[in-house]
């Protein structure tokens, strides 16, 4: 998988991509192991709420990583065109 993506990643940024890729696996493993420990102490209903919160935070992270930059660019372009039209 990493070999396939290495053709698309610029050569000067491959280290950063590799580090972040490994960090995501380590973070997922940390969350999974901590939820096993929490599951031993919490009631099933509290555990389902905890997992739901983790999932919602993950959805927010994915949404902002995909669309936040494009929203900022669209706002900038709209502002710039409005300024040009007013002049």
Strand content: under 5%
Low-confidence stretches: none
| N/C terminus separation | 51 Å
Percent helix range: over 70%
**General form:** flat
Sum this structure up briefly.
It contains three helices and no strands. With 87 residues, it is mainly alpha-helical.
Give short descriptive properties of this protein.
single chain, 87 residues, mainly alpha, 2 domains, 3 helices, 86% helix, flat
Architecture blueprint of SSEs:
Layout: H1 2-5, H2 14-41, H3 44-86
Overview of this structure, please?
This protein folds into 2 domains: 1-41; 43-87. The radius of gyration is 20 Å and the shape is flat. The chain has helices at 2-5, 14-41, 44-86. It has 3 helices and no strands. It is mostly helical.
């Amino acid at each position: 998988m990493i070999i396939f993506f290495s053709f698309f990643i610029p050569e000067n940024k491959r280290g950063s991509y590799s580090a972040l890729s490994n960090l995501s696996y380590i973070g997922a493993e940390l969350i999974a192991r901590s939820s096993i420990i929490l599951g031993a102490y919490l009631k099933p209903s509290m555990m389902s709420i905890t997992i739901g919160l983790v999932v919602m935070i993950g959805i927010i992270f994915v949404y902002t990583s995909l669309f936040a930059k494009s929203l900022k660019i669209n706002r900038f372009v709209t502002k710039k065109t409005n300024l040009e039209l007013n002049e």
